[in-house]
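User: Just a sanity check before I run the rest of the batch. Below are the structure tokens for the first item. I only need the designed sequence back.
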């Protein structure tokens, strides 16, 4: 099984936004959480994504882009295939450059270990706040390479996306050594400078990318992400409520409730930014990149025919605990059929939406200057090129 490891060292400045407001959100990882376990043993090639976010004061625009474009970026992996299979996706999250964090640890914190729970990633993104600081690019790259449970499987894609606006040379860890260490483990380092191209070059962002066989990019972190309304949007979002009802969460009673409530909460977080962001999230949920085999029985049974035999009865959804094994299988298969039907509707409507969107963009391009590159543009550009080089088919 090919493992696809994308270290998405995107130094986002995740600060104040409509999502987090003034409320402090605490992310708790319980002892029964699956986030530190090995990848689910299934049939699909897999993708590991580590997001390292610069949460210093200067990066508020970038953090908003990260939240706005998270599901656009994830959709890129949903559209990629290798050997006819869509890769499964695990994501990790670090923050750095925030003076609320201990100076003795380089103002760095691992927020989420590699996990396939994309809702947990979204929750973590919305919890981050900016402050400070001192941004140590070399040190955060070194820590991500060292701490995370990167796959050792052959033919994997491993890449770091690191974004920020301060010199790449800050801190006691030499960025050159960190980048060489990364590529020595097969991890590409892509750098994203939030500012002018020339400033990024002089600040050694380009040099860091070259050392680790990555791509140097620059973006405007204050560029707004524009959503164009399409006739299909409303129906796609309405289908989301029905789609949520098909999830059969398993685990401890508290874990099941956490998964259920967090799925809804991240829908609300996306909608709080704009209907366009929620739309993109629903499109991802309608595809194969949003896979919850560690938490949801429908996905688990699709990946593993013996899933029921590996899950204790007390960890099953309460409505299934009193059923016979045959009745449980029938119930899950019924939900799977319903989910497939809903996802097919979402996919069909999204194809129609994309066709409409392409026409609208053509018209808009005649009357407006080209928009500056955003975080999502930079990531998609690098990912497409690098996936193709490793034998993935992108955007079929």
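Assistant: Here's the designed sequence for the first item:
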């Amino acid at each position: 099984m090919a493992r696809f490891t994308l270290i998405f060292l995107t130094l986002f400045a995740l600060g104040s936004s409509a999502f987090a407001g003034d409320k402090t959100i605490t992310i708790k990882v319980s002892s029964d959480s699956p986030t530190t376990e090995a990848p689910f043993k299934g049939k699909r090639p897999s993708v590991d994504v580590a997001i390292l976010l610069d949460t210093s004061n200067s990066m508020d625009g970038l953090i908003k882009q990260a939240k706005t474009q998270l599901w656009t970026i994830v959709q890129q992996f949903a559209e990629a295939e290798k050997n006819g299979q869509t890769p499964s996706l695990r994501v990790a999250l670090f923050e750095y450059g925030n003076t609320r964090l201990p100076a003795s640890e380089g103002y760095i914190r691992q927020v989420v270990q590699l996990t396939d729970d994309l809702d947990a990633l979204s929750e973590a993104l919305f919890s981050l706040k900016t402050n400070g600081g001192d941004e140590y690019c070399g040190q955060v790259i070194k820590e991500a390479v060292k701490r995370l449970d990167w796959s050792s499987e052959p033919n994997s894609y491993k890449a770091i996306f690191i974004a920020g606006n301060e010199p790449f040379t800050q801190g006691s860890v030499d960025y050159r050594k960190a980048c060489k260490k990364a590529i020595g483990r097969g991890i590409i380092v892509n750098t994203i400078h939030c500012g002018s191209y020339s400033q990024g070059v002089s600040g050694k962002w380009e040099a860091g990318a070259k050392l680790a066989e990555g791509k140097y990019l620059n973006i405007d972190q204050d560029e707004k992400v524009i959503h164009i309304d399409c006739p299909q949007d409303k129906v796609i979002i309405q289908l989301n409520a029905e789609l949520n009802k098909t999830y059969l969460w398993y685990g401890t009673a508290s874990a099941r409730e956490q998964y259920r409530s967090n799925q809804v909460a991240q829908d609300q977080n996306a909608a709080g930014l704009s209907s366009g962001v929620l739309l993109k999230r629903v499109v991802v949920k309608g595809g194969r990149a949003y896979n919850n085999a560690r938490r949801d029985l429908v996905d688990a049974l699709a990946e593993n025919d013996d899933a029921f035999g590996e899950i204790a009865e007390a960890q099953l959804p309460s409505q299934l605990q009193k059923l016979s094994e045959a009745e449980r299988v029938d119930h899950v298969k019924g939900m799977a059929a319903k989910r497939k039907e809903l996802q097919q509707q979402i996919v069909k409507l999204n194809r129609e939406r994309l066709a409409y969107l392409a026409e609208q963009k053509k018209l808009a391009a005649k009357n407006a200057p080209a928009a500056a590159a955003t975080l999502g543009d930079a990531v998609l550009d690098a990912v497409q090129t690098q996936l193709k080089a490793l034998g993935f088919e992108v955007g079929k």
